[in-house]
Amino acid sequence: MTKHNNLDINGWIILDKPEGLSSNQVLRKIQYELKAKKAGHIGTLDPFASGVLPLAFGEATKLIPYLENGDKTYEFELEFGTSTTTDDTEGEILSTSNIIPSLEEIKEITPQFIGKITQIPPKYSAIHINGQRAYTLAREGKDFKIPERKITITSLILKSYQKDLKKALFEVTCSKGTYVRTLGSDIAKSLNTVGHLSSLRRTKNAKFDLSHTILLDNLKNMLYKNGGANPVLPVETFLCDITVIALTKTEALKLKNGQAIDSKGLPPQDRPYACCLENKLIALCEVKENHLLPIRVFNH
Asked: pTM of the full predicted structure?
């Protein structure tokens, strides 16, 4: 990152990522435009995919670990009859089949993919294998195996089917770590055929959904055509399920200095408490021995 990026930008931009760019490319592009010192994102989207990509800047990046494990919802179009090396439109054709399932056959197998299931992620993925990305090894033609992983599919709905076009549109809600490309391929295999994703769009990422998003082109217009309007949402915007505790100025100062304050009778819990002064996030805290102890302090 160049010296051009030197401002303390704190907050969120929930982007509707366009197809054709990686999540990191989009993040770095916007980070550069904002001149933001620090940035991160929640939930990687393949270049092939579009949809909800939460971008965190500055102090908001401290919230990423508490928000990134939520379920995600996608719409994906599965095209039967052709498999590819990447399980989407970006790969080379791997195999073909003349078997195109009926609507009834698709409806019949859909329930078997709901619940706790196992997946073997695609070789063209960002998973690390002995210190190298799987997609790097795949492009080099190296032989390797990816261990299966357990995931949870909360729902899988067939929204439409055009048999003449060999295309089925699904909506899936799934746990972190699910590869929707693999899900599509596995659905096709269960129907004794092959398939690949012809489109993939994330409509929800934890508590972030399309209603929160801004298009990349609209973002550029906000930055350059509307008098430099600030598109960054406050750090506190997406505290989501984190319980918020109101602080006095004295308590806020103590937490900022790393000191504990009285727990106010609050019980210990798995998730941290968000301690705020006048709606501004001061610290994430945990309860220990009747005290609130700061585990993340925010300087904004």
From this structure: 0.89
